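Teaching note: in complex prediction, the entire set of molecules is handled at once rather than each chain in isolation. The prompt given to students was simply: 'Predict the structure of this complex.' The entities are:
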Amino acid sequence: MTEIVEQAIGRSRTARRRRKTGGITHIAVFLAPTVLIYSIFSIYPLIESLRLSLFDGQPDGSAVWIGLGNYATLLFDANWAVRFWNALWNNLILFFIHMIVQNPLGLLLAALLSLAPRFGGTYRTLIFVPTLLSVVIVGFVWELILSPLWGVAEGMMSAVGLGWLYAPWLGLEDSALTAVSLISVWQYVGIPMMLIYAALLSIPDELLDAARVDGLSGFAIFWKIKLPLILPTLGIVAILTYIGNFTSAFDLIYSIQGVLGPPDYSTDIMGTLMFRTFFGQQTQIGDIHMGATVASMMFFIILIGVTIYLLGVQRRLTRYEM
Amino acid sequence: MSTVDTTRARRGRMGRLGAAAGVHAVLLAYTIIAIFPVLIVVLNSFKNRRGIFTEPLALPRTETFSVEGYATVLTEGNFLLYYSNSLIVTVVSLFLILLFGAMAAHALSEYRFKLNALLGVYLILGIMVPIRLGTVAILQLMVDLSLVNTLISLILVYTAQGLPIAVFILTEFMRTLSRDIKDCARVDGLSEYRIFFEVVLPLVRPVLATVAVFSMIPIWNDLWFPLILASSDATKTVTLGVQQFIGQYTVNWSAVLASLSIAILPVLVLYAIFSRQLISGITAGAVKG
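The expected output is the structure of the full assembly:
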């Protein structure tokens, strides 16, 4: 993201060099709608959520300032802490599975597509189809396919002699989170594939020709030349995966498993915890202040991830002029 | 000597053929994995109950063909209304994102003023921080504005959500436009507004299309905000409608499969029409990033 900031600064420098065009009313008119809508419905709610997390609701409807009290409750109160750490841990597992399955798979598909095989465009178009579908639809489709009631998955596995491996994965505590993660991988692998594919296409041919003349094999060219050149894109893919983990993952788990993250909270993530805390569920009464606290914790966790990426990962990646 | 050469050449050609076959095998296998679940749902939605359960992998035959699921969905569910809700929300949000986004991008790329860099960074924050984290306050705000259970609430949120990336992409592109045309227009005495609407907008039309397709998917598919801000019967979107319909009809498999297909098919048709645009949009954005 630093390059975005740098670009923004560079942009203002070129802008400054430009001829002044008199008056500023039109500039304000051009900017006002965006700045207003964005500030009111995106930035203000975020700040307001942070503020709400510092208060505690009273039975009479008023709110009392309690500083970081809600955070202490979330992190240390026995009932809350167990849910919080469980949800965070599940989120990290979700992220981990995406990093070791989705992104390498995206890289493999992109690398194969970049060889420009025949029908490459068709493969690319079809592999991207799941990404377009609503998470709700994807969730139900897989729920049906994996369902022991319908038996499609079981029947197909039996047909190739693997029937004994089948289990109702979504319903078992040990496998539910992995199953949900893999469904999500299936849906979203198109995004890293496209981003990496585009990066591979932007590598100049002269560079690859030179390597071929030097006698490098196709595999060596990929490993020693292409991969180092697309590292910045892999970094972007990683941080997008991390952020998506805390946002869009909710929709999938909510549609397949519901808001409690069953069985026994094994698929409970920060998104479902926030939803439950805010709106209440069954025995639990909704609490905006604790809901805001969970949301703010998600904000800080995302911030930590983005900071690590900006300072630790992106700085170290050499950017080649291509 | 020549025989060695031909053997080597043949081996090279065989190797290339083998490699090409390998590439196709992997891509084809994954393509099947990607579309098989979608196909099986759409196929089975055209079968009767017995057909769905006894031969889920077969094509519908005369004995198993049935559209009873679709009949149930069309009579029981209010899908026409859900569709028009989704359509209104998506189209209006897209229009606002494109118009306001282009205006802001034009201001940021065209004029020199004090807050330019700062505003650029401020708007980019929205790309990194998901708007959902502010849900608690968004709901309160909508309650205060009496906008709960209206499509306007969704439109406002989606516009706020889509603007940062739209401004970013459009600013990048507008900086590459030639200044001469705009300066000519100024010499001709066109106002700054007319320069934007009559000179700049037509020039960025292809990028607008890209941003549109790009911003559309998360709006059309969102479940979170319809669930929280507009879950009333009159304001349900397709995504929420399907989700709740399936919740009620879990045992009626034909109806479930039909409602899923009804939600999938328009997206597939649109994709078939716009896939070139969409894919070039994503790859163009990536090259810049």
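Point out the following to students. Confidence is low (pLDDT under 50) at residues 11-21 of chain A. The two ends of chain A are 19 Å apart (CA to CA).
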